[in-house]
Specification:
heterodimer; A: 253 residues; 8 helices; 43% helix; globular; B: mainly alpha
Chain lengths: 253, 70
């Protein structure tokens, strides 16, 4: 029996590894045999994630994405301590549902910095010749809202669209160096971000979207997104680059 | 911030003129989903308090918003 998504012997960095999707990506990479370097702002939140991982050799690092030099410093440490990277997943992100009338520049900049600027900086650092292995796969967690507008979500939608735009350019630029770059675009996923949105907007408003748009039903489990990320990290997707893979229960069809 | 200043802030948030404490929210043409979301965001930004859609369902007048802030 074979496992096309086998990640045995691969060193994978996961940014945002304490979040709902990031932690599930970390767990699935570990189950598939990968060695992990986990990065997140919260050391307390990272600890239970690393404790629950299969295998050994995993390490955790704290990074504040609002500090413009922090990512480069962290990735340098990751490679010094655990060797070159075969893959990297960017799973960090925030959302603040906020009408345009109250979306002042400093609020927009915070979302853009964490969701988009950090994504590009993370990929810049992990793909440097000193950091990467001969072949490498990068996966970002974008959103269907990169392609589908949503009231009160100008900051979030635009940051995710920027991630997809950057991904396509980076895929072109890095292909000759053996690096693939893809994103996964989930719909509504059962995470703390989703719970906060439900609390703010009201469940009855959200349920209408499920019935009409995400017609396969219930909010997506983080494991469904993690499986898509792991597929793109693995050699099973070796001819896929420059793609945003939609995982959204039919939302965009 | 006194009550009058807060009512002016609510008026600015909802983009309406001439708001009074006894104004019925449902009578305002501007009282739509985006206005409610603006209120949630303003209460969080200015007072650090969490206001939810369920809380808003219980508001009838501007006075109810003042009472929520306390």
């Amino acid at each position: 029996m074979i496992n096309p998504m086998d990640l045995s012997g691969k060193h994978i960095a996961v940014m945002g590894a304490a979040g709902g999707i990031g932690s599930e990506v970390a767990r699935q990479v570990a189950r598939l045999g990968g060695k992990l370097s986990l990065l997140d702002i919260s050391e307390n939140s990272l600890f239970p994630v690393i404790e629950g991982l299969e295998g050994d050799g995993h390490r955790a690092y704290t990074v504040d994405l609002l500090d413009s030099e922090a990512i480069e410093i962290a990735i340098k440490r990751v490679c010094e301590e655990s060797g070159r990277l075969d893959g990297a997943a960017f799973c960090a992100g925030i959302n603040e549902t906020r009408p345009l009338r109250s979306l002042k520049p400093e609020k927009l900049l915070k979302v853009a910095t964490i969701n988009y600027l950090s994504y590009v900086e993370f990929i810049r650092c992990v793909t440097s010749r000193k950091s990467r292995a001969e072949k490498m796969s990068i996966v970002g967690v974008s959103s269907i809202h990169s392609m589908h507008g949503d009231k009160g979500n100008t900051a979030y939608c635009s940051s995710k669209a920027a991630m997809d735009g950057a991904m396509r350019a980076m895929a072109h630029e890095l292909a000759a160096e053996g690096v693939r770059v893809n994103n996964v675009a989930p719909g509504w996923v059962k995470t703390a971000m989703f719970e906060r949105t439900v609390e703010t907007l009201g469940l009855d408003n959200i349920e209408k979207e499920f019935e009409m748009l995400q017609y396969m039903g219930e909010p997506i489990e983080p494991l469904d997104v993690a499986n898509a990320v792991c597929f793109l990290l693995s050699n099973a997707s070796k001819f896929i680059t420059g793609t945003s893979m939609v995982v959204a229960g039919g939302y965009l069809t | 911030m006194d009550t009058q200043e807060f009512v002016e802030l609510v008026a600015e948030t909802l983009e309406v003129d001439g708001l009074e404490l006894d104004t019925t929210l449902s009578s305002l043409e501007e009282w739509d989903s985006m206005a409610k979301l603006s209120l949630i965001v303003m209460v969080d930004d200015e007072f650090g308090k969490k206001l939810t859609a369920d809380d808003i369902k219980g508001f009838s007048t501007v006075q109810d918003i003042v009472d929520f802030i306390g």
